[in-house]
Amino acid sequence: MNMLFERKLAIPMEVKEMYPLTGDLSRVVEQRAAQLKAIFAGKSDKFLLVIGPCSADNESSVMEYVTRLRGLADKVQDKLFIVPRVYTNKPRTTGDGYKGMLHQPNPDEKPDMFKGIVAIRELHMRVLRETGMAAADEMLYPENHKYLDDMLGYVAVGARSVEDQQHRLTASGIEVPVGMKNPTSGDFQVMLNAIQAAQHQHTFIYRGWEARSQGNPYAHAILRGSTNKHGQSIPNYHYEDLVLINELYLSRGLQNPAVLVDVNHANSNKQFIEQIRIAKEVMHSRRYNPDISRLVKGLMIESYLVDGAQKVGGGVYGQSITDPCLGWEKTERLVLELAEGL
Questions:
Q1: H/E run at residue 138
Q2: Hey, what CATH topology would domain 22-340 get?
Q3: Which of 106, 177, 200, 250 has the greatest number of CB atoms lying within 10 Å of its CB?
Q4: Separation CA 258–CA 241 (nearest Å)
Q5: pLDDT single digits (tens) 3-56
Q6: What are the residue ranges spanned by the domains of the chain?
Q7: Tens digit of each residue's pLDDT (9 = 90 or more) over 102-148
Q8: pTM (two decimals)
Q9: Rounded CA gap, 201 and 44, in Å?
């Protein structure tokens, strides 16, 4: 095999023993997860925002962002339920580029996976301890989910992962709501197949064990747009798209039908400023059609301290080093406007 095995990494149980979650923080996770489940089950009419940086690249700037977000969440808590995006591992289309804090705790230094495992656990723990919010992260590697599974409030499965059997089966054993993105092809049926799989019970191999999942009734759809064979972005947040996904959901008989609309990625053609317009269009569709209002439970927004993006090593504190994001001032204004319109 043309591969060098450098060292054996600590298993999740060992890392959790080194960096344990206290009882108080465990209760925070349970309470936040219960509130999220109530939204997806239709027992709460709060609107969900999963919002934050494209990638959590720097502990200091991420904590400053999440601390600000906590204050904003308090202002709109009667209308909105806010979950911070703390994405610690990033898919790369070609395999090149910054792969997230899990790989590189310091983007300017070479990868160190053990330091990365410790760094992402400590970051999520700080978010819990200092803000009382259980964050969202992407399950890029199903076998790594156990390093964080005791502290996440929300899990996303990305467009390039949603067709993978191991992602679907692992999602079926996760306690908290899991969002399944439409694949890059845009095929709604593929996404709904993933949701159906995640909602069912399964027996499968996980980290060397024969595992048995109970099914996740809160697995749901995330619409993020698609890309055609010419590389052009095709949005799927428009009124007609939402009507269609509602019809397809009903035809499947899935539990707790729900959609989040990702207002960046192929929906915005990565034009970060367009997220504002797209968010408002989705809210207009909800007001116009009661079925869409029941189905669309929230939005996913990419936002950081500073508008736009920079290359690794660019030196701008709080600006994304992956996809461009809305800066804080625009974010705050948009969140307040969304709350006012509900």
A1: strand 136-138
A2: TIM Barrel (3.20.20)
A3: 177
A4: 14
A5: 888 889 999 999 999 999 998 999 999 999 999 999 999 999 999 999 999 999
A6: 22-340
A7: 998 888 888 899 999 999 999 999 999 999 999 999 999 999 999 99
A8: 0.96
A9: 26
